[in-house]
Each structure stands twice: as C-alpha cells, then as structure tokens.
Amino acid sequence: MQQPYEPTGTAPTDPPHRPAEVAHVLVVEDDPTVAEVVCGYLGRSGYTVDRAEDGPTALARAAVNRPDLVVLDLMLPGMDGLEVCRRIRGREPVPVIMLTARGDEDDRILGLEVGADDYVTKPFSPRELMLRVRSVLRRTRPSAPGTEARPLHAAGLTVDPAARRAAKNGVELALTLREFDLLAFFLRHPGRAYSREDLMREVWGWDFGDLSTVTVHVRRLRGKVEDDPARPRLIQTVWGVGYRFDPAEREG
C-alpha cells in the first residue's frame, strides 16, 4: 500500500512562472494526492494540464491531444510507467519526466533507457519538479536566431537546432530531448574531453544530480550514431576524465 504523500519543501512565495507559450502537460499519476499537488503547481505556473490515472487512459489522451510534456509515474496499475513511456515515445518524441517512489538506481536507469528525459524521486519538492519541467520545455523550444541555431555537420551527422532534427548519413535519427542536446553539444565542441559533471552542467543545466544519468544517455546516443556501438569511434571514453567527440576518427 502506498504511503500518504508529503511533498518536501514549502510553497513558493515568488510570483508564478508564466511560460512565453502556454505548454500542455499530461500528468499520469494514480495517487490522487500526488496528482493534485503536481497538477496544482503546474496550473499555477501557467501550464495547461490534463490528467490520467492509468496507462491506457494516458495513451488515449496523448493520442487525441499531443502533450508538450508528460509527467509520468513509474508505478501505475495494470500498465506500468515504463510501458507507457515506451508507447508514447514510439509514436513521437514527446519529452517525459518520470516520477518514482523507488530508491533503486536500476529503476531510474531503466526509465532513462526506455526514453524518459528526466526523473524525480518521491518524496520530491514541487519547486524542484517545476524547475525540471521548465528546463525540459525550454530545451524543446526552437533556438533563437544566431550561432546556436546554425545547422551542425560532422562525420556524416547533421544537427539542426532550430528544427530540433538530427540525421546520420541523411537518415533522420529518433532522439530523445537529452540525446539531441548531448549530440548538439558534442558537435559544437569536437576534440575536447568533458567530465560527466561538465556535461551535466553544460547540457542539462544542473549543478548537481545523479551522474549515471549522463552515462545512460551517452550509451543510448552511441547506439544511434556509432557504426559499431560496442566499439565507439565518435564518442570516445577518456578514462579518468569522461567523454570526447572525435569526428576525425570516423573520417580517418
């Protein structure tokens, strides 16, 4: 039986955040207390909110009205959050933030492996969740005109930040939000080694967090851009440091 949910932290006293463009967020949570807290904070932050209590209902609502973001509980009756995430991500690249009451790192990593872009562990601070929501949605918006929006090319890879599209040898890649951001960052900074802390700060925009998140996303990205993911040549591991994108290895 689930324990009564008690969000950590206090309600914000600053004015509610109002998105420049109102985003539609689908909350999938069977615990009515958690759902009420999450939906309440999202609504006060200026988002339009839809709610589903189980996986089939979530899939049906997402099919009718495509959300800009899904906040998805891992533990759902009947169809668990992992399967819901797989099916949603199988349709189109909708960002997903997963909620989990489990403390097991394997569960969090599995959520990332099936396509979740981020996760928050219960009990959580609603303010923290709102920060994660804003961070994810900000990265889904087209880049402003300028250098950061220019298409990037290297080693048969093309990334168009403005259109949020990437391709390998002309074939479009199905990337999650974090995978896309990570690939774009690597193409902007070839030949330089970055630690996982560097990548979390520069790509995720976080000063702290679970570094295994970076490891999982690098592994997933390698599976999509490397000719042989078991022997990566583009995204190389720099032992004792982190990772380096080296397009010269493939071109050579």
By DSSP (H or I, 4+ residues per run), the number of helices equals 9
As laid out across the biggest beta sheet, the strand order is: 2-1-3-4-5
How would you state the average pLDDT, rounded? 81
- N-to-C order of helices and strands: EHEHEHEHEHEEEEHEHHEEH
How many strand elements?
12
| Proportion of residues in extended strands | 15-25%
Number of domains: 2
Q: What is the name of the CATH architecture of the largest domain?
A: 3-Layer(aba) Sandwich
Domain Response regulatory: 24-137
DNA-binding region: 149-247
Keywords: DNA-binding, Phosphoprotein, Transcription, Transcription regulation
Protein name: Response regulator transcription factor
How would you concisely characterize the structure shown here?
With 252 residues, the protein is α/β, with parallel strands linked by helices.
Please, could you describe this protein's structure?
This protein is of the alpha/beta class and 252 residues long. It folds into 2 domains: 24-140, Response regulator (Rossmann fold); 147-251, Arc Repressor Mutant, subunit A, CATH 1.10.10.10. It is built from 9 helices and 12 strands. A 5-stranded parallel beta sheet has the order 2-1-3-4-5, sandwiched between helices. The protein has a 4-stranded antiparallel beta sheet with strand order 6-7-8-9, covered by helices on one side. Strands 10-12-11 form a 3-stranded antiparallel beta sheet. α3 links the parallel β3 and β4 (96-100). α1 crosses α5 (126-140), α6 crosses α7 (196-204) and α6 crosses α8. The longest helix is centred in the middle third of the chain and has 15 residues, at 126-140. It is globular, with a radius of gyration of 19 Å. Residues 1-6, 9-20 and 143-147 have low confidence and may be disordered.
